[in-house]
C-alpha cells in the first residue's frame, strides 16, 4: 500500500556541482520511483562543465521541475540551505548528484515516515564504485554506524548516523532548522539533531541508495578502522591534529545552534569540548561515563573511539576549542 500523501506532496532537492558524469544515472533513477514526486528542485552551484545544460533540461514524470543556478560557488551547506528555504510541499527528500536511487526508495521511506510520526527518516546505503560495482553491501556495517531512532540527541551528536542523500522528512522540521547555524559540519547532521529534538528520527533498515565513491566525493564512505581514518584524513588533506580540532569545533557549532534555539541544552559537552587537551585527558573517565550513560546504544567500540579522538593528544594543539 502506498503512503497516502496530501496534494501538497513531496519535493526532492538536488544540489549540483560539476556533476555531468553522474546526473544522467541519477535522473533516470528518479524517473523510476514508485512514489511520484510533486517537484524536483535543482540548484547548480556555479558548475564549470556541462552540468547546467543537463539541469536545465531535467524532468520527472508527472512532477514539476524547478532549476536555478548560482554564479558563485557557495558549497553544499549553503546550496542546500537555499534549496530547503524554497520547499513548500508537505515533505521533502535530500538528493546528491552522484548517487542512484533504488526504485522504491521514496515509497518505503515515506511509508515509515507516516507510520512512525517522526520528523525524519533515513536509510542504509549500498556502497559502489564509479561504475556502480558493489564495494560494500551496507554502509552501516562498513562504517560501524548504529541506526539510532527516536530522540537520540547525544548519540547523534557523538556519531552522525544520518546520510543526507537517504533523508525523507517533513517540511515542519525546516521551521526549526533554518537558517543553518554558522560552523556546522554538514546540513544532514544538523537536520538529524533538530528532528531528534522534535518528533524524532526513524531508521529504515534497507539499502535504498547506490552510494557512488569517486575521487571528488564531498565526504564519502570510510571503513571503521585505523586505515579507514587514515584514508579519510588523506582524502580531506588533514593532519590528525587539524581533524580532531575541526571535529570538536563542528560539535560545538551544533550544540550552540541547538541551545540558541532552545531545542536542547548540553552544558557538560559544551564545556568539556572547550577544555584544553590536557584537561580533557585528565577528565576522560568522566567524559566516557557521560557518553556511556547517555549514548550506550552506540556500543563500546564507537564510544571508545570517540573518547580517544576527543581526549587524547593525537597530534592536536593543547589549547582549548573556542568555537
From TrEMBL:
<dbReference type="InterPro" id="IPR029044">
    <property type="entry name" value="Nucleotide-diphossugar_trans"/>
</dbReference>
<dbReference type="Pfam" id="PF00535">
    <property type="entry name" value="Glycos_transf_2"/>
</dbReference>
<feature type="domain" description="Glycosyltransferase 2-like">
    <location>
        <begin position="11"/>
        <end position="174"/>
    </location>
</feature>
<dbReference type="GO" id="GO:0016740">
    <property type="term" value="F:transferase activity"/>
</dbReference>
<dbReference type="InterPro" id="IPR001173">
    <property type="entry name" value="Glyco_trans_2-like"/>
</dbReference>
<protein>
    <submittedName>
        <fullName>Glycosyltransferase family 2 protein</fullName>
    </submittedName>
</protein>
<keyword id="KW-0808">Transferase</keyword>
<dbReference type="InterPro" id="IPR050834">
    <property type="entry name" value="Glycosyltransf_2"/>
</dbReference>
